[in-house]
Specification:
It contains six helices and seven strands, in the order ααβααββββββαα. With 200 residues, the chain is α+β, with helices and mostly antiparallel strands.
Length: 200
Amino acid sequence: MAEWRNKSLVVKDRFQDWGLFHKSVVIFFVILFSAALARGVFVVEGGTYLIKAEQVFSFDPEQINPWIVESENRVRWQAEVTDFLKYSGDERKVGSTRRVDHRRDGEEWVSFEQTTEIEPNKLYKTVQADEVKLEDRSFEVTMQSVNSCQTKVVIKEIIFPRRYFDRYWAFLDKSQRQKRLKVSLNALDRWLQTSKTKCE
């Protein structure tokens, strides 16, 4: 028993003799392992993440709204969307459904979308179920009048990957998806500027 106690004291003394660098390395790996473990536990049930982009447009909400709600206009500016195919309902009303064709880096896939909330000239919200990418998303656009001929448009997506592996590593894709929203807003601005829509 005494021999075991003496060995543990020797190990303890050796750790105390370590330099600041060696202790820092050990602490770094302990923190890294703890963070990886905590994330692993968190994404078992959770794992949704939010991406968001906003931009001010030189138009009134009434002029921007058709570009947000109507599929024919939306397909022109929303990045990675190539087509909408109506299934049921009026796209300007809650409950309408459509098929969405996507393309990214040469890969094509389809998702199913349903409108869940609409406040004309203020809010447009849908949910999407994607069986190829195996994720669920909510897509939300809000329009807020700043002053005459100025509207702040905010796009939000809440994404939930269904596979545990995809949820765990989702943070690696987040910045790329964030960039996609910014590209969409820039494209929307270009379409509005080149259309016959004018604000006076």
